[in-house]
Each structure stands twice: as C-alpha cells, then as structure tokens.
Amino acid sequence: MSATLDAPSSDIDPFSEAFFADPHRFHATLRDAGPAVRLSVYNIWAVAGYAEVHAMLHDWEIFSSARGVGIQDFAREKPFRLPSLVLETDPPKHDRARNVLNKVLSPGNMRGLKARFAAEADALVARLLAAGTCDAVTDIAEEYPLTVFPDAVGMPKENRRFLLPYGNMVFNSFGPQNSFFTDAVRDAGVVFDWVQRQSQRDALAPTGFGADIHAAADRGEITHEEAPMVVRSILTAGVDTTVSGLGAAIYCLARYPDQFAKLRADPTLARAAFEEAVRYETPVQTFFRTTTRDTEIGGVPIAEGEKVLMFLGAANRDPRRFDNPDAYDITRKNAGHVGFGSGVHECVGQVFARMEGEAMLTALARGVTAMEICGPVKRRYNNTLRGLASLPIRLH
C-alpha cells in the first residue's frame, strides 16, 4: 500500500466530455506524470507512454484480457454483455477462435475482395461528385463500410445500419456506466437480439466469411456453439473501427490540403494515408487489462487484480516514439503504431479497415481534385472510440 501511495496520481476523468473534447492535452499530462498513474476518480491505473502500452499489449500473461477489456472485472462482476470469444479470452482458449479467423481472413481471401471494394469506392465517389457536397461521415465513412463489409460476411441487406448502434453500445460498455453508456444502451435488447440472429448460420449467405466460420465448426476447429460468437466478433470489430478511421482520414486530408496534394500526385500512398490517420486520430482510444499477479510498470508497483487503462491514442503521439507526432504526414514511417492494438489481441477488423481505407482514399485521390470543409464539424463522444458525428465537405 505504501508503494501505491507513493505512485503518481491524478484526478483526470478519461470518460468525461471535457476529456473527449481535447484528449491530447490530457494525454501529454498523463505521459509526463509517470509510467503508471493512479486515476482517483475510478481507482484504476493509467498508462499513456508508448513503451509501456506496447509492452502491456504483448504481455497477456500478466496483463489479462480474460477479465474484460473494459472497466468491469469479469472475475468480480457479471458482464453487461456477452464477453468476446476473441477479444476477452487469453491463450490457449483465445487461440482456437483466432486461428479460425486468421484462416477465414487470410491474405488470399482478402485479395479476392479487392476489385469489388475498389469498384464500390469508385462508384460512390462518382455519385458524391455529382452531388457536389456531402457529409463525409454518413455518406462515406458509414455508407461505404455498411455496403462492402456485410456483403463480404454474407449478411442480408435489411437493417444493416443496426451495426452502428450495436458497435456504439459495445464500445461504450468498456467504460463506466455514465451518460454516454446509458444513452447507448437504451435500445440494447432489440439491437443485441438482431446481432445474435445475424450470427446464426441460417441467417447468413451460403458463401462469405460468416459461412466460412460455421464451416470451421463442422471441421471441429471450434464448436458449433462458439461459431456465432466468432461471427459476432467480426461484426463488432469490422465496422466501427473502419467508420472512425475512414472519417479521420478524410478529415485529415480535408484539413491538410498539402497532404491531399501528395496523395493525388501518388495514389499508391492511399494505404499510408489511412494508416497515418489511424495513428494520428486513433479511433480506438483505450482498452483495459487486469493484472494476474503483483507486477510493476516502469518501476511503479501494481498489485494483482488491478484494472490498468491503456491509452492507445496517447501512445501513438508519444514524442519519445514518433518524430513530430502532432503532425499528419502521409509519408511518415509509422510502423509500430498501436492504433489497431498489438500482440495476440490485435484488432480482428484491421484487415477490413485497411482494405476499405485504401480503396476509398485511392478513389478520392483519382476522382477528386480538392476537398474543403463547408460546415461545422461535430464529434461523436464514446467511452472508447474517437470519431466524428458530422463532417460536411465539398468535393471538386
């Protein structure tokens, strides 16, 4: 206890509107305070430096996901929702489901989608150019993933927009039960029931990633009871990270026309432009881990059973890791950013996010000569995600 009292502490509330409105200022404060900081508001630990966050992501034995990647400790509280079979299990249980997903979402299978994703992106850009103005959040960042991603999974066309409130609920549930959480879960029953139904074999097309996951159960790689849970993991991870990441990329390119000019001059930079936006804005800002035994972080003693909040967004702007981290630079060598996590629990949906981001930014680079923001930009606040609610732009 004396060691804990000697550790740095802060009254910062990382789940408040003030924090969400200007996270980078608070991130710098937490990074400067020490390798691990006690947050008095929730009696939890916070880690904001790149070296410490990266080390935690790669040490699942001490920093466990199985007790929940949110503020709830599943060993002490009943989870609000069904825990993720992929995100909230540790090896070896984690490995069976993850191995199935690695096969289903293999580079070969993803390459088979590339032409279709590109064609859909080109068609969307052509429609938006004809209109002249659009909201880049609803008309691009949401519209595009909600078309190509569910098609790849084999979902029916009806009610696909339910994936947005579903993701909003799940990512809000990783934080405390504050107003953002209560607003998100108001219609939880209807949305959760819908997602559970979409994960069943008979609701999915006979071809697609959903069917492939159920086929893995036929081969005994996972159980038939686990197959819908693995499908649900894709549905959780495959939309919101892409929506927020794509919105961030378009926002950055519209704010920094010199970077869009670089992309137009060389559309092969589309993947790098998306990757830099994920580092710069970090759609998934935070995740929790729970210590499995007494340990230390940067010399600060941490007891067993402690919740530790990793600030992925703060790590991605740590000046000890990235040169000029507050600049958006599509030529940056940003390998190693933790925008999609790292280690055994890295984001399942990153393969979709990267392919969709590259396809859409390539289409914009080839079809649009200039983008300008033409109305008020609005943020969407969420206990875990950083994203936009509205981004009016004019396309030329």
List keywords for this structure.
alpha+beta; six-stranded mixed sheet; 19 helices; Cytochrome p450; 396 residues
CATH superfamily: Cytochrome P450
CATH class: Mainly Alpha
- Averaged pLDDT: 94
Number of structural units classed as domains: 1
The SS-based structural class is alpha+beta
Helix content: 40-55%
- Quantity of strands, as a count: 13
Please give the largest β-sheet: 6 strands, mixed
Radius of gyration: 21 Å
Cα(first) to Cα(last) distance is: 62 Å
| Number of helices in the DSSP assignment | 19
Strand content: 5-15%
Identify the CATH architecture.
Orthogonal Bundle
Shape: globular
How would you explain this protein's 3D organization?
The chain is an alpha+beta fold. It has a single domain (2-395), classed as Orthogonal Bundle (Cytochrome p450), CATH 1.10.630. It has 19 helices and 13 strands. The strands form four sheets. Strands 1-2-3-9-6-4 form a six-stranded mixed beta sheet. A hairpin with a 4-residue loop joins β2 (37-39) and β3. It starts with a helix and ends with a strand. Residues 1-5 have low confidence and may be disordered.
